[in-house]
Amino acid sequence: MPDEIALAIATTLATKGAEAVVAEGRTALAALAGMIRDRFRRGSREADALREAVARPEDRERQLVLAELLGRALADDPRFAGRVLAQWRAVQEELTLERGAVINHFSGAADKVVQARDVHGDITL
Questions:
Q1: pLDDT tens digits, residue range 46-92?
Q2: How far is CA 102 from the centre of its chain?
Q3: Element at 102 (helix H, strand E)
Q4: Under a CB-based contact definition with an 8 Å cutoff, are residues 6 and 68 in contact?
Q5: 22 Cβ neighbours under 8 A, 6+ residues apart
Q6: Torsion of CA 51, 56, 58, 64, to 10 degrees
Q7: In 3D, which of 71, 117, 68 has the Cα closest to residue 96?
Q8: Which site from 74, 77, 88, 109 is most exposed, i.e. has the minimal number of CB atoms within 10 Å?
């Protein structure tokens, strides 16, 4: 059974993979898809699994096969895993923002930080 992250990535690639191809690397998802496609050699079992999962996004079995193969690749190569997981975080943020959510980031030092969205009316601090 593939791990949860590999399964989540495989499912996202399968269901949104066609969008990623059209985006040609301009989105975090397209960059992730390209990274994985580059890793999976053309003509390999992994490349075939990726292509088939994207071609038939409703087929859960194809997603599971892709997740299993991706999970192995992540386990076998920690550097690849680090790059994929960093890009996966960017994909999650991108998908969250598509649904109108807010992602708050703060880095640095401060005594107080205020982050807000859709404030109606006055604010006094």
A1: 999 999 998 998 999 999 999 999 999 999 999 999 999 999 998 88
A2: 17
A3: none
A4: yes
A5: none
A6: -30
A7: 117
A8: 109
